[in-house]
Specification:
14% of the residues are buried. Helix content is 76%, strand content 0%. It is mostly helical and 170 residues long. Helix 5 packs across helix 7 and helix 6 packs across helix 7. It folds into two domains: 82 residues; 48 residues, Orthogonal Bundle (Arc Repressor Mutant, subunit A). The longest helix has 31 residues. The protein is built from seven helices and no strands.
């Protein structure tokens, strides 16, 4: 790889040297997934470019960083697939006439995926308290009794989760 050259040339060299390897590695992780592996490999390099990391500053082991970025993208991919399967399974129980059009389904899947990712980033107690309030409809006192924490702490966790949700909406 060119060191100390023009960044565009450095990215080209990095891509040429490692793209095939990365795509093969992703195919192995996916158990096939040729098109998905190709997309994730591209996204890995796009993330690197978006982060404005200069290839000459990646050190002697650029594959370590590429693998790290690709692993995060794999987690996002698998999370989205899990959410998509759950949503489509729920739709399968509806009469065909009640199912939303395909375009709406994609919007819902994308929104649910973003919410799922947000919830995964919350600390476990915050996530648990929030889900008990939102999905199970428990009161603050009921949540407090169930998770063995003071009502004021339950309220703080719910506030934290709601603020995160509002930030996601912006």
């Amino acid at each position: 790889m060119a060191v100390g050259g023009h960044p565009k040339c450095e990215f080209h060299a990095l891509y040429a040297d490692h793209h095939g390897w990365l795509q093969g590695w992703l195919r192995g992780q996916l158990g096939d997934g040729g098109d998905v592996a190709a997309d994730l490999a591209q996204d890995t390099f796009l993330r690197l470019i978006a982060a404005r990391r200069q290839p000459s500053r990646l050190g002697e082991r650029p594959r370590a960083l590429l693998t790290h970025i690709a692993k995060g993208l794999l987690v996002d991919h698998w999370r989205r697939k899990r959410v998509e399967r759950a949503y489509l399974d729920a739709l399968a129980h509806l009469p065909a006439a009640a199912a939303p059009p395909a375009e709406e389904q994609l919007v819902v899947i994308e929104t649910l995926s973003r919410i799922d990712a947000l919830l995964a980033r919350l600390p476990a107690p915050t996530r648990e308290v929030f889900l008990l309030a939102q999905l199970d409809g428990l009161t603050l006192q009921q949540i407090s009794d169930r998770v063995q924490m003071p009502v004021i702490t339950v309220r703080r966790h719910i506030r934290k989760a709601l603020l995160a949700c509002m930030a996601l909406a912006c």
